[in-house]
Automatic annotation (TrEMBL), chain A:
<feature type="signal peptide">
    <location>
        <begin position="1"/>
        <end position="26"/>
    </location>
</feature>
<keyword id="KW-0449">Lipoprotein</keyword>
<keyword id="KW-0472">Membrane</keyword>
<keyword id="KW-0564">Palmitate</keyword>
<protein>
    <recommendedName>
        <fullName>Sugar ABC transporter substrate-binding protein</fullName>
    </recommendedName>
</protein>
<dbReference type="Pfam" id="PF01547">
    <property type="entry name" value="SBP_bac_1"/>
</dbReference>
<keyword id="KW-0732">Signal</keyword>
<dbReference type="InterPro" id="IPR006059">
    <property type="entry name" value="SBP"/>
</dbReference>
<dbReference type="InterPro" id="IPR050490">
    <property type="entry name" value="Bact_solute-bd_prot1"/>
</dbReference>
UniProtKB/TrEMBL annotation, chain B:
<comment type="similarity">
    <text>Belongs to the binding-protein-dependent transport system permease family.</text>
</comment>
<keyword id="KW-1133">Transmembrane helix</keyword>
<feature type="transmembrane region" description="Helical">
    <location>
        <begin position="20"/>
        <end position="42"/>
    </location>
</feature>
<dbReference type="InterPro" id="IPR000515">
    <property type="entry name" value="MetI-like"/>
</dbReference>
<keyword id="KW-0472">Membrane</keyword>
<feature type="transmembrane region" description="Helical">
    <location>
        <begin position="122"/>
        <end position="139"/>
    </location>
</feature>
<dbReference type="GO" id="GO:0055085">
    <property type="term" value="P:transmembrane transport"/>
</dbReference>
<feature type="transmembrane region" description="Helical">
    <location>
        <begin position="219"/>
        <end position="240"/>
    </location>
</feature>
<keyword id="KW-0812">Transmembrane</keyword>
Length: 459, 311
């Protein structure tokens, strides 16, 4: 070996030794920090900011720091979780869509079972209709397709704790446009017919900017947010659920189905121009910009409108009103868990992660998040709700309570086919209204065909 | 003789070192291709025979079921796929045809102009340079009910041609409009290819034809077109490939709407992969991707055969 080669060898050994020694140090630090530092991913930017505020308080209380990162939009979030699951790089906590995504991820081995950690006291903090959102009940397992990972899960497993809640099918009206059309800006229409009359008045006043906006580019919004609450109130729960049944004798093509589709079709003259080319956010923005007089969304829409410059006090909000000729004369929307928090199965900080979820779903933590995001928490804030989320959003909560018969529960999917694909009925509804390519009877037959195929496919 | 042959192939030590150095330079590219190319292609192909939601540790092997479901077996999957295939077919035929019909005469004109040639070429090439997601958003604004096109039509007294729901909101104009935008974005590169092709044609051919009394139309038909056939085949093939696989424009501008009227196969594959909740449809999505690949391969082979015959 030459002198130069010897020098190089010694230098290489030195570099290797240094690399080994510096490599060991962070590991030691990592184990020391275990339980004191958490990573969390969410798919909502507004939640990330609010959660980071809550995390600051959490650190003061416990010394545990939490860094919350938003990964948006939804498909990017899903892809990131998929790849992180493959590479073993999942964070400690995930905020996911409740009542579906949480169960799928849990059953696939990504989320850990929290049933032993989340006791009755914890669950009782939550709005009653949200409590079972992350639970794998025997009914959920039984309904799953034969090859679903649900079949491998033990009944009673809890994969997540509900975090935010709300309801779809909330109509927002521009008070200024109502007043300009000679309508009361503070009195919501009591019936579907009154709602149509109000739409007619605003559209006559402003033909291009007095209609109804809804992001029909995401075609299922019309079916999920308008048609279903309307049909539920018109037919009552049992006849409404019969529309979707396997081999439905009382399907969408039946007199019940056609009548409800006729009611939905009455919206046709009042859609905002180009509603079919707007996604949900774009439709909300169009409403905030005064391009429509009415907008359909959910309880979460109010915060988005505020972010886009429309003050909540200029908006009148009410649920999709029931038809005067229907079974239910009033309508209530059961709040469903929209997002929930889960602890990943690979976390090394499980205890700290559970403490963080406990805090985020406590009245204190949820209050911080609610006031920062203007989103309704799944935690019952009681009398503090108005001061935390504002009087307008809190006022929407009055539509959450009603009789079991009159309450529309969007989380109840027990009567859908197992592999329910909401885009297909959504497209069919768009062809009915606003496109007018189908009559209500034709749309009913098409929907029966779609649901029949889904049932057959799930066999 | 065999011994001589082997001895002849034996390399001296210096040449071994040179060979090794060569391999060392090639190795990173080969390794990268092996991981990013061969592995992903193999993994994708395997996935098309499985059911997986992207999260479970194991795949469920289903053989050819995903392919059969897409083609006919699944009553919920196959009919919308056939509709999307019909839309894709229209795009596949019309985009390359219109691209050639516009870009060839444009290239001939650009090739013949003497003044402002560079400026004009830059102007016609702009759509290609600026093409992308942002341009599709810009097109959406132009095509809205109160967008520039409706405004222009109304100001020209052609209000009856304006679309009150916007060009993308009307089922009868949505797909044709998307085809026009696709053609708009593919004409520049086709024109550039034709321009390079035109410059390789011997001017003596044109001169001789002119002396024989050929009109410009006959020059184009009898000389330019036959000599540019290989280029035309390439442009058509590129157009077909883009129409088969491309889905960004459909995703951004219509998301398959209104009412599913602009649904295409690429968009279906994307939806199956990412927008089916967390259903185990990644395998079906992959199978659809492979069906599209098979379609593209068949068209390439047909194109190659056609080219050989023309030559």
């Amino acid at each position: 070996m030459t002198y130069r080669a010897r020098i190089l060898t010694v230098a290489l050994c030195g570099v290797l030794a240094a690399a080994c020694s510096t490599g060991a140090q962070p590991a030691a630090e990592g184990s020391q920090a275990a339980g004191q530092s958490l990573r969390m991913w969410t798919f909502k930017q507004s939640h990330a900011d609010a959660l980071n505020k809550a995390a600051a308080q959490f650190k003061t209380d416990t010394g545990i720091s939490v860094v919350v990162e938003a990964v948006t939009p939804d498909d990017v979030f899903k892809a990131k979780v998929q790849s992180a699951a493959q590479t073993g790089d999942l964070p400690d906590v995930l905020e996911v869509h409740a009542g579906g995504e949480d169960r799928e991820m849990g059953a696939s081995g990504l989320l850990s079972d929290l049933s032993a950690d989340v006791g009755a006291e914890w669950l009782n903090r939550l709005l009653p209709t949200t409590r079972e959102a992350g639970l794998m009940s025997q009914a959920v397992i039984d309904r799953a397709a034969a090859d679903s990972p649900f079949k491998q899960v033990k009944a009673g497993t809890l994969f997540s704790v509900p975090f935010t809640a709300g309801a779809f099918g909330i109509v927002f009206a521009n008070k200024e446009k109502l007043a300009a059309a000679g309508l009361s800006p503070d009195t919501p229409p009591k019936t579907w017919e009154e709602f149509l009359a109000a739409l007619k008045a605003t559209t006559e006043k402003e033909p291009d900017a007095g209609g109804l906006s809804l992001g029909l580019k995401v075609s299922q919004t019309g079916f999920n947010w308008v048609y279903q609450p309307l049909a539920h109130s018109y037919l009552g729960r049992d006849r409404f659920q019969a529309l979707f049944a396997k081999g439905a004798a009382q399907g969408f093509g039946s007199p019940d189905g056609v009548k409800t589709l006729e009611l939905y079709g009455q919206l046709t003259p009042y859609w905002m121009p180009s509603s079919t080319t707007l996604n949900i956010d774009e439709a909300d923005i169009a409403f905030a910009q005064g391009k429509s007089a009415f907008n359909v969304g959910g309880t979460f829409t109010l915060a988005f409108l505020a972010q886009n410059g429309m003050s909540p006090d200029k908006v009148l909000a009410f649920p999709i009103p029931p038809s005067a000729g229907g079974q239910q004369k009033e309508i209530a929307m059961a709040p469903l868990a929209l997002t929930s928090l889960g602890v990943t199965a690979t976390t090394e900080n499980r205890e700290a992660a559970i403490k963080w979820i406990d805090f985020a779903t406590s009245a204190k933590g949820a209050g911080i998040v609610a006031s920062a995001s203007l989103d309704l928490p799944a935690t019952d804030l009681g009398t503090d709700a108005a001061s935390l989320v504002g009087p307008d959003l809190a006022a929407l909560q009055k539509y959450f309570t009603g009789t079991p018969e009159s309450t529309y529960d969007a989380a109840d999917n027990t009567f859908f086919p197992p592999d329910y694909d909401q885009v297909k009925p959504g497209d069919a509804m768009v062809r009915l209204s606003p496109l007018k390519e189908r009559t209500p009877a034709q749309a009913g037959s098409e929907l029966d065909e779609i649901f029949g195929a889904m049932w057959k496919s799930s066999e | 003789m065999i011994t001589q042959h082997v001895a002849g192939r034996r390399r001296p030590p210096g040449r071994w070192r040179a060979a090794l150095t060569g391999w060392a330079f090639v190795f990173p590219a080969v390794a990268l291709f092996a991981v990013m190319g061969v592995y992903t292609i193999g993994s994708g192909l395997a996935l098309s025979f499985a059911k997986w939601n992207g999260f479970t540790p194991n795949w469920i092997w289903v053989g050819f079921d995903n392919y059969l479901d897409l083609l006919y077996a699944d009553p919920s999957l196959a009919p919308p796929l056939r509709k999307a295939a019909w839309n894709t077919g229209q795009v596949m035929v019309l985009v390359p045809l219109l691209t050639v019909a516009i870009s060839l005469p444009l290239a001939v004109v650009l090739n013949s102009v003497k003044r402002l040639r560079a400026v004009l070429r830059s102007v016609y090439f702009l759509p290609y340079v600026t093409s992308g997601i942002a341009v599709y958003y810009a097109w959406r604004y132009i095509l809205e009910p109160d967008g520039a096109i409706n405004l222009l039509l109304r100001s020209l007294g052609l209000g009856t041609l304006a679309q009150p729901q916007g060009f993308l909101g009307n089922p009868s104009t949505a797909l044709p409009t998307l085809i026009v935008v696709l053609v708009w974005s593919s004409v520049p590169i086709a024109t550039l290819l034709y321009l390079t092709g035109l410059q390789t044609i011997d001017p003596a051919l044109f001169e001789a034809a002119r002396i024989d009394g050929a009109a410009p139309r006959q020059l184009l038909r009898r000389i330019t077109w036959p000599l540019l056939t290989p280029l035309t085949a390439g442009i058509v093939l590129l157009g077909i490939r883009d129409s088969l696989h491309g889905f960004q424009i459909f995703l951004i501008m219509t998301d398959g709407g209104p009412g599913g009227h602009t649904d295409v196969l690429g968009l279906q594959s994307y939806r199956l992969a990412f927008f089916k909740g967390l259903a185990a449809t990644l395998g079906v999505s992959s199978a659809l991707g492979w069906l599209l690949f098979a379609g593209a391969l068949l068209l390439t082979l047909a194109n190659a055969r056609l080219l050989r015959r023309v030559r």
